[in-house]
Design brief:
Layout: E1 5-8, E2 11-13, E3 21-22, E4 24-28, E5 31-36, H1 38-42, E6 50-53, E7 58-61, E8 63-68, H2 70-76, E9 80-81, H3 88-100, E10 108-113, H4 126-130, E11 138-142, E12 147-150, H5 152-157, E13 170-175, E14 178-185, H6 186-195, H7 199-215, E15 218-223, H8 231-240, E16 247-252, H9 258-268, E17 279-287, H10 317-329, E18 334-338, H11 341-357, E19 366-369, H12 375-384, E20 387-389, H13 393-406, H14 416-421, H15 439-448, H16 465-471, H17 474-479, E21 497-500, E22 517-522, E23 525-529
Length: about 525
């Protein structure tokens, strides 16, 4: 058997048990044929082999983003981008341009504003958006994806008035008993389902997202859900039609009424693991609390920035135990969005009680984000063999706000070193589009613990480059119970690789985010190539 492709003269980082570094790797069709020295690998080639000279660059297992939102990322590209605006007026101008080409009565959607980065230093209001249009419903989602602002037209369409009660797990923000248009958590989720994109728009967005993810070297995605119950169907169709090219592990839940969707999944008779290497049903997922940067995360003690606030809960302990306990009993992997330390503690408690009642080994139950995890909770995660899914890129994107909102608790936010020191397998997710999808920013933040401004954010939790690579590859496969087929460069595993612009192991740590993806190999095929690589033949 001769190789169909051979990559040689590089830094082939195997991410195996020894974290071996080789010179070359050979591929036969879509599997790894051999790993080792240049001489060994070139001996597997013949005149039909495509041979790629890596020229000393790093070749790693394809990145596995263990928590991302393909649908939200893709549809955000279809709306107005508010991430880089300097002030509210600039965002209004962008929305006004969109209004000119939008038929009267149809939605105008924006994404990505952050009040902390605006010169105005405040959230949007419905009156700001009414200045753009009162003939179109308008929704602009904050960068966290948990908060939005709508105009008066949107409030009228949703039949929300000053006398409307707050929904469970959410809040309509008011000033002097009058709605400002700002919607928190469940209030936002409910509104966006009304404002949601059409099926054709979502499928187009999924295709755009897949292209961008491939360009970043991401070959597998643990998709963390969309707004509505049809999300899984859209995603599966997009994978079948090859609009989404990555291998997808679909967390079974939704941003609106996640318990209701999980209940329907349990009633269907399916469970985690249904599918194949391209599309597979993942864990049952619910929401416990809000966002870290809002902030709306549920914390044990009040926020440092606001002693009167400690966040929002979607579920109480009894509700959480009930829905996830039933999922565990029926054989599902279970997980929950848990950011604040109170929410993380609640999820740990649910897992503990589920395992007590229905013991199961190798369950690989997860905690999405595990945002604020102090030492006592790290110990419990270790004891229960839970897999945390942290998002270190948040430290880079939102770190200055964390210092303000949480004070000394920044040393327990995404505590990667604590996880590593306890031997806890943690898989990194970008939570894109909340932060950049680029895994190299996630690795950079995990290693340096610096915000965009350069502030250190819990620098006691820095980890090594090797540990960060493992969390973006092998541990990602472990978190989906697929480490036997991917996540490392070992004979027989799937040929999913990423080639970087330089050596990641020799790169100065403060330059990690400046590395580029030169090539993405998926299922043995080169699907992205950004360099004029020279082949031997």
């Amino acid at each position: 058997m001769k190789a169909t492709k051979a990559f040689f003269n590089g830094e082939v980082i195997a991410v195996d048990a020894q974290f071996a570094v080789h010179e070359a790797v050979a591929v036969y069709e879509n599997h790894i044929l051999s790993v080792g020295t240049n001489e060994k690998i070139l001996a597997t080639t013949d005149e039909n082999t495509e041979i790629i000279d890596l020229k000393g660059k790093s070749l790693l297992p394809g990145f596995i983003d263990a928590h991302a939102h393909l649908e939200l990322y893709g549809t955000s590209l279809l709306g107005v981008n508010g991430k880089e605006v300097e002030d509210i007026r600039e965002l209004q101008q962008k929305l006004e341009e969109a209004a000119q080409s939008t038929p009267r009565g149809e939605w105008i959607r924006g994404w990505g504003y952050n009040q902390n980065n605006l010169a105005d230093g405040r959230h949007l209001t419905r009156w700001d958006l009414d200045e753009v249009s009162t003939e179109h419903p308008i929704i602009v989602v904050r960068t966290c994806g948990h908060i939005s602002c709508v105009n008066s037209k949107a409030l009228d369409m949703a039949e929300i008035s000053n006398s409307t009660a707050d929904p469970p797990g959410g809040k309509y923000v008011r000033e002097n008993d009058e709605l400002t248009g700002l919607l928190l958590e469940a209030a936002h989720m409910n509104m966006f389902l009304l404002a949601n994109y059409s099926e054709s728009e979502i499928l187009k967005g999924l295709e755009l997202a897949s292209q961008d993810y491939l360009a970043m070297g991401i070959t597998s995605v643990h998709d963390a859900g969309g707004y509505g119950p049809d999300h899984i169907r859209y995603l599966q169709r997009a994978v079948q039609d090859k609009k989404v090219k990555q291998r997808v592990y679909a967390l079974y839940g939704s941003l609106k009424d996640s318990p209701g969707m999980v209940e329907k999944g349990l009633e269907s008779g399916m469970m985690t693991g249904l599918g194949d290497e391209w599309f597979k049903i993942g864990p049952a997922k619910v929401f416990i609390d809000g966002s870290s940067s809002g902030p709306t995360a549920k914390t044990r003690a009040p926020y440092t920035s606001n002693p009167k606030d400690s966040g929002i809960l979607y579920l109480n302990q009894e509700e959480l135990d009930s829905i996830l306990g039933k999922a565990h009993e029926k054989g599902w992997q279970i997980t929950a969005h848990a950011i604040g330390d109170q929410a993380v503690e609640m999820m740990i408690g649910s897992i503990h009680r589920a395992l007590e009642q229905y013991p199961r080994s190798n369950h690989r139950h997860r905690i999405e984000h595990a945002g604020m995890t102090p030492p006592d909770l790290v110990e419990k995660i270790k004891a229960l063999e839970v897999v945390p899914i942290p998002n270190p890129a948040f430290v880079y994107e939102f770190g200055d706000g964390y210092i303000k909102d949480y004070g000394e608790r920044i040393h327990t936010i995404f505590p990667l070193k604590s996880f590593a020191d306890h031997g806890i397998p943690f898989a990194i997710g970008s939570d894109s589009p909340i932060t950049t999808v680029n895994p190299l920013y996630g690795i950079h933040a995990a290693v340096n613990r610096q915000s965009k401004s350069g502030s250190l954010v819990g620098d006691t939790q820095k980890i090594t480059v090797q540990e960060a690579i493992k969390a973006y590859t092998w541990y990602g496969a472990y978190a989906s119970n697929e480490d036997h087929i991917k996540g490392s460069i070992e004979v027989g595993k799937l040929a999913d690789f990423v080639v970087l612009s330089d050596s990641i192991l020799e790169c100065e740590t403060d330059r990690l985010k400046d590395l580029k993806v030169e090539m993405t190999v998926l299922d043995g095929e080169i699907v992205v190539s950004k360099s004029s690589r020279e082949a031997v033949r």
